[in-house]
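The protein record passed on below.

***
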Amino acid sequence: VSTANEYACKGLDKLEEKLPILQQPTEKLVTSTVTGAKDVLTSTVAGAKDAVTSRVTGVMDMTMGAVQGSMELTKSAVTSGVNTVMGSTVGQMVVSGVGSMLEKSEELVDHYLPMTD
């Protein structure tokens, strides 16, 4: 019995050397474990929050880019349409008619509202 006890004590000594946590009081182990779990949970929640924020920001950036792209496309289409109309025969007739109207209105203004000294 004493030989078995001696070997058991040596085995426990080696185990305590390799695992110093075994020598700590139970209250300290529980507190340490709870604090560690709390830290891990806080870190995990913060990481999840950052991931969600990052994804929301990415989606907002993509949406803003799509809206801006749509606006540029619309602007380009309108500009192209106006240029096409203005370059056509009908567009040239409109430009010519507007030009003639402006000339005539200037003549009428000069006639009915002559410049004074």
Q: What stands out?
A: The mean pLDDT is 75.
